[in-house]
Design brief:
The chain has 214 residues and is of the alpha+beta class. It contains 9 helices and 4 strands, in the order ααβααβαααβαβα. It has a 4-stranded antiparallel beta sheet, sandwiched between helices. α2 crosses α7 and α5 runs antiparallel to α6. The N and C termini lie far apart (49 Å).
């Protein structure tokens, strides 16, 4: 029985405390694609700005492609060893799918049609005139939310992860031939760790918390 088997990963508090960034993986482990899809499905319960859900996921589980992007990620060893690399992409044209999202919301009975129409008007006013750079900033915020949830979902299923911001996003997009509308935000390595994560400390809550002002 591994140490992981002794941990109650059905408890969200346990999952949050046990999740650590792991940088050494067993390269022989393959995660079934259906299981990766389940992890992403759980991750996408995260909130997003106006529920536009701008995140798109590029899953790289081909070892040859992992080798190809290895130099682009500053030669981080876990890029080669992980079962997969999940690239969280931000869709600069997520606004185009707003009507689809809110139509489905109405069909599911979660929102009356007249409320949906009001929402669509406000969303167009909020996002319709934004430059790509501004949309990217919003997408970065949403990417952080979904990425954290993805890593927690992975831990709950017994997998380790590490988020990566240390890579060349432009070269990554070029290597994977991404359209200009899909911009890389965060890369996440996922797999079975072979070494314990390096322990780290956190500030005490009293050092970082203020009440009703500074």
């Amino acid at each position: 029985m591994s140490s992981l088997d002794k941990i109650d990963l059905n408890n969200i508090y346990t999952v949050m405390r046990e999740r650590h960034s792991v940088r050494a993986y067993d390269p022989s482990i393959r995660i079934p694609r259906e299981e990766l899809k389940e992890i992403i499905e759980l991750a996408t319960t995260a909130p997003s700005s106006s529920n536009l859900q701008p995140w798109r996921f590029l899953i790289i589980d081909d070892k040859e492609i992992q080798k190809q992007i290895h130099p682009i990620t500053n030669n981080q060893q876990h890029v080669l060893e992980a079962s997969a690399i999940i690239a969280v992409l931000g869709d600069l044209e997520s606004l185009k799918r707003a009507d689809d999202i809110y139509n489905r919301t109405v069909e599911a009975g979660y929102m009356p049609p007249e409320v949906k129409e009001g929402m669509m008007t406000r969303i167009q006013e909020l996002y319709g005139g934004l430059a790509p750079e501004q949309m990217h900033q919003i997408n970065l915020f949403d990417a952080g939310l979904v990425s954290m949830q993805l890593m927690l979902a992975a831990k709950a299923k017994g997998y380790d992860t590490v988020p990566m911001g240390g890579y060349n996003a432009e070269k990554f997009a070029e290597a994977l031939q991404l359209p200009e509308t899909l911009v890389p935000t965060i890369l996440i390595a996922i797999g079975k760790g072979t070494k314990p994560a390096r322990q780290s400390i956190r500030f005490h809550v009293d050092e970082i918390t203020y009440w009703n002002g500074l």
